[in-house]
Amino acid sequence: MITKEEELKKIDEQFMLKALDEAHRALDEGEIPIGAVVVCRGRIISRAHNLTETLNDVTAHAEMQAITAAANTLGGKYLQDCTLYVTVEPCVMCAGALGWSQMSRVVYGAPDEKRGYTEYAPHALHPKAAIVGGILEEECKALMQEFFRSKR
């Protein structure tokens, strides 16, 4: 019999695969390969990937794009019934935006030891937000490593 935790992990992995699809799109476009999807009541309401190079905008992170698209889809700025799936731990800027959006849950793949919010602003997310890290971590990490190896 499958436990509730095992079932939730399976769901998290399925949606993280969608975020990884977005990360691959970013890679194909010459962007840092980070992808994100926002899920509300079991349905993807936004998909995004990094666009910082394309838009020449340091704020065009996958999470920021996904938050904006999700808010537009729902017609409001608060994403209380939503989960963000992102391939890499959010930075401080994105964590702040996630906190202001009142995102209920944040699920990320690989940690970011250099720029991740847990190092610099561990309380940036909404106090009631549930955080899950390490979902498909190896796949997410491998994509980032591949990208940076190709730049060296």
3D structure, described in words:
This protein is globular. The chain is built from six helices and five strands; from the N terminus they run H-E-E-H-H-E-H-E-H-E-H. Helix 1 packs parallel to helix 6. Helix 4 links the parallel strand 3 and strand 4. It has a five-stranded mixed β-sheet with strand order 2-1-3-4-5. The longest helix is centred in the N-terminal third of the chain and has 25 residues. It has 152 residues and is α/β, with parallel strands linked by helices.
Per the principal axes of the C-alpha atoms, what is the gross shape? Answer: globular
Helix percent reads 40-55%
Strand order of the largest sheet: 2-1-3-4-5
Beta-strand content: 15-25%
How many whole angstroms does the radius of gyration measure?
14 Å
